[in-house]
Amino acid sequence: MISSGDNVSDPAGSGALLAVALAFFLCGCVSLIVNGASLLTLHAFAAFIVMAVVGASNQLVPVLTGAKAAPARTVMLLSAPLVLGFVLLLGGFHGIHVLFSIAGPLLFVGVTAWGIWTINRIRTAPLEAQTRAAVIAATVAFIAAAGIGAVMALALDGRAAVGALLLAPTHASLVVIAFASTFVFAVSYRFVPMFSLAHTTEGRWTRSAQWTIAVAGVAGGLVFLSIWYMRAGSIIAIVSVIAAVVVHLHTLKKRMRKKIDVSLRYASAAWVFALFAAGCTLGATWHPDKAPAAVAFAILGWLSLSILGYSYKVVGFLAWEYARRMHPTAKLPPLGNAVPERASNVSLALLVVGALGAALSTAFAPEALRMAAVVYAAGGIGAVAVLARLGWQYVGLKA
Amino acid sequence: MSDIHLDNRGLHPPEPMIRILEALDNMQGPGKLTAIMERQPRFLFPELETRGLRYTCEPNGDGYLLTVERDA
């Protein structure tokens, strides 16, 4: 028997957001095949990453910080402008340029509202001051990125100076590194030990990477002043990733659970891609034509694999908890054995090969991109299918 | 029959969960574990069910009291 009255869980709101995020992910997979490495594809994946982080900030951050989880209605209300904004933005990139003028400002307003609400909610939470500070820093970076994005969207519709588009690298650095990567670094410090059943690695320097990666994102964002800021940011990012990998490996070494489950396999692969992305970004400061490869490593590899890895745990847990509430006396299938191993391994292998292929083909052999995209999409569809089946095992239970 | 009592107040996640699982793994034969928690250890519940253990988690003062029973 689990008592009610606890406020650290919101299966409906977070589950719905994760479902929306995964729909954007599938959209990105399809667009990668159809449109290649286009801005439409990039922003479909960006929508996936943003909606997943927004969902996680309501479900995972309260678990760590003791902040109250909001009711599903509030979460959906705050997320609606983001979802609509991204749909309109994708419409703009699809060719309906007038939609840029609605999407940009709508996303900026939506991100700002969500950001202020998130900061207010966790600012006074009782636990984990460092995690809270990192999430707040990431959120501020996201608001800044959305502001730049709004001006760029207006420029794409001819309502702002075209020169604003030169801020694209700043926008990308703030979103990918200062916002999303800082968020993943901050929560992985607690959740990787939680998922692997290991004691947390505590020490003066163990959490430094979450701060240096935020600095890397901001430094990279100053690239409009000088390319040397991006070089410095890339070097700081490389050092940050290496530091985080050392902590990750140390945690895995101490784990109680012998098996490295699917979430940790995804996370481990994601860290390798993070290193590729940071290294490639540094290289692209001398060879700008290689910048798309760095973006592919970061988006298709590092962030997508991290989020899909977390999703295996989160979807299973949310669905399990939903079923527990609906059927308090029922014997539920054990969560530890609920993920189909073979299917999830095949999906991961396809995603890794596809992401690697997509990044390398954008840099060296553009004609091979479609084949890599098909492989990546096959892995992505497989991963989402496994997640849907995992959730349905519990949500679909009859009384 | 062994009884274990843990006070997990002031610990950050996942330490409370790890301490409880370690104590349960080290328990010889049947017994009962009680733990004072600041918050409901929600990620622990599926772990306990996977291990086939009976448990309750009820409000207790400012926190929660977790009780886990092991038959063998």
Commentary on this structure:
The complex is a heterodimer of chains A (399) and B (72). Chain A is 77% helix and 0% strand. Chain A is mainly α. Chain A has one domain: Cytochrome C Oxidase, Chain A (Up-down Bundle). With 72 residues, chain B is an alpha+beta fold. In chain B, 26% of the residues lie in helices and 39% in strands. The A-B interface holds A 1-3, 5-6, 8-9, 63-64, 66, 127-128, 190, 193-194, 197-200, 256, 316-317, 320-321, 324, 332, 334-337 and B 12-15, 17-18, 21-22, 25, 38-40, 42-43, 45-47, 49-50, 56-59, 64.
- Number of helical runs of chain B? 2
Oligomer: heterodimer
Number of DSSP helices of chain A? 12
Query: Can you tell me the residue ranges of chain A where pLDDT is under 50 for at least 5 consecutive residues?
Result: 1-7
* SS content category of chain A: mainly alpha
How many domains, in number, for the residues of chain A? 1
**Which residue ranges of chain B are poorly predicted, with pLDDT under 50 across at least 5 consecutive positions?**
none
Q: What is the domain total for the residues of chain B? A: 1
The name of the CATH superfamily of chain A reads: Cytochrome c oxidase-like, subunit I domain
